[in-house]
Structure formats: C-alpha cells, structure tokens
C-alpha cells in the first residue's frame, strides 16, 4: 500500500470536479545544497531505497508522468513502477521534446515494444523541416505517439500542454523534472501539490540547481516524513 501521507495528500484529487487541466504534482529529489542534477552527461542519484519506493507509489497514483527532454537524454529513465508488487496502475510516460531529440532506442520505447511499458507520448512543436519530419516518422515507427502543440515565443506553453493532456483524459499528472521543466511549471503557477525529497548529501559546484522565480503561487506545508535517511516534505497550493 502507498504511504498513508500520500493517500491523504492526493485524496482531494478524486474529490474535486474535473477541470480544464489535470491536477499537477511536482516532485523531485534534491541534495542538502539544493542540487537536483549533475552536469550534463552525468547521472546524479539522490534518493535512497525508501524514498525511491515512495516515488514509485506516487507514480502509481497518477494517470501520467512527465519529464523534459534533457532528463530523458541524460538519465534514460523508465518512468514506471517496477519497484511495486502487482497489481498497480502503470502511468503514461510523457516527454516534452520540442525538437524530437528522443532516441528511438531509449528505455521507454524499448519497454513499450517489449510489452512491459505503456506507449510514450512525446509533446513537440510542429515543423515543416525535413529533419524534424524524418525524426517524427522514426519515433512513431518505434512506437511513440507524437502530440503536436504550436509553440509560444519559441517554447512549449505549459497551459497548452496541460489542456491537451486533459483533452486526452489525463486527470492527474506527476511532473519529475528536470530543472527547466520545474521552472516552467512554477512560472505558469499550475502546481497543485509539491513533494520534495531532500537527501543528506552535498553536491557542490558539480550539480545543477533550480529556480522558483516567476511563480505567484503560495504553498502550505502539509506533511514531513523521514524515509530512511531522506526527508520528504509535502506542500499544497
């Protein structure tokens, strides 16, 4: 069973009526000095076994999981619930990838082709560039579903992304990063629940942080939980 605090925290999702966007849970792990990732090309593992198990329960409680292309390329994540005993909900993996840089041999697509994962959705901005069209064809042949959303000032619009997902019956969305995605969701003021896992380690200059700049939301501390050596704090908007 999921930890009790997650059940209580997310119970309001089922109690509230449908809206024009999914409920958004933003969650990430950070070091004590607020670093969430290593320098490009390096993977930084912060969560211990207990908090990682919690993250997989949290994934199972959402319709979909979203990460940015930077995280997808750097970490090659599976975005599944493999640490949980069956049966449990397997959320839809979603990648924000404006230029379709995702590899056709990534774990997400490999898992889908092997029958052990759901079909990934890739959200991109439409283009008439032949190389973009070629990459789209290759990704679709590999099993991806490409969702095209016009860009706003050269970037994917978070509200437009959320509206598109809600139109596809995604009622709850778990956002896992990386730093650019975290900043864009905060800036759009669309975060309903914030869950931060803090590991007792210092990363220093070899790590990348994040910013909350531009957010007009105010959060209230809902719960603090010690899981192994990690501290998990939960906040609600």
From TrEMBL:
Domain Bacterial bifunctional deaminase-reductase C-terminal: 22-232
Highest taxon in the source lineage: Eukaryota
Keywords recorded for this protein, A-Z: NADP, Oxidoreductase, Riboflavin biosynthesis
InterPro entries: DHFR-like_dom_sf, RibDG_C, Riboflavin_Biosynth_HTPR
Record's catalysed reaction(s): 2,5-diamino-6-(1-D-ribitylamino)pyrimidin-4(3H)-one 5'-phosphate + NAD(+) = 2,5-diamino-6-(1-D-ribosylamino)pyrimidin-4(3H)-one 5'-phosphate + NADH + H(+); 2,5-diamino-6-(1-D-ribitylamino)pyrimidin-4(3H)-one 5'-phosphate + NADP(+) = 2,5-diamino-6-(1-D-ribosylamino)pyrimidin-4(3H)-one 5'-phosphate + NADPH + H(+)
The keyword Ribonucleoprotein is annotated on this UniProt entry: no
Pathway(s) where this gene product acts: Cofactor biosynthesis; riboflavin biosynthesis
GO molecular function terms noted in the UniProt entry: 5-amino-6-(5-phosphoribosylamino)uracil reductase activity
Enzyme Commission number: 1.1.1.302
One GO biological process term: riboflavin biosynthetic process
Family: Belongs to the HTP reductase family.
PANTHER family for this protein: 2,5-DIAMINO-6-RIBOSYLAMINO-4(3H)-PYRIMIDINONE 5'-PHOSPHATE REDUCTASE, DIHYDROFOLATE REDUCTASE FAMILY PROTEIN (AFU_ORTHOLOGUE AFUA_8G06820)
Functional description taken from the UniProt entry: Catalyzes an early step in riboflavin biosynthesis, the NADPH-dependent reduction of the ribose side chain of 2,5-diamino-6-ribosylamino-4(3H)-pyrimidinone 5'-phosphate, yielding 2,5-diamino-6-ribitylamino-4(3H)-pyrimidinone 5'-phosphate.
Protein name per Swiss-Prot or TrEMBL: 2,5-diamino-6-ribosylamino-4(3H)-pyrimidinone 5'-phosphate reductase
Protein species of origin: Laccaria bicolor (strain S238N-H82 / ATCC MYA-4686) (Bicoloured deceiver)
